[in-house]
Amino acid sequence: MRLDGLFPKAPKAQDFSKDGILKAVAELVVCDDQSLTLPGKALFRNCLVAMRPTTIKSDLPSQHDVSNYIHNSFVLFLRELKANIQVILLTDISYFVSLHLH
Length: 102
Known about the structure:
Blueprint: H1 18-31, H2 42-51, H3 63-101
Helix pairs in contact: 1-3
């Protein structure tokens, strides 16, 4: 029996980068409702190093780095949301005005 179509293929492992690990840790904190202190805990940092033994201390994101990343991502999200809402409102207003002018 073949299982080819039953399970989605796992995505290819990504290359290591400081930005990639920062994003992954921030997503873990936000999406899994973890404490912002998690990135600073020795046990967690040791787990990250165990997954990639050539990791050096400066490769690992600090609590401050993760907090800033989350904050900046949220600010960007709100900026994009505001722009999208403005486009929708302008489109709706112009449509409404065109209906009443004809």
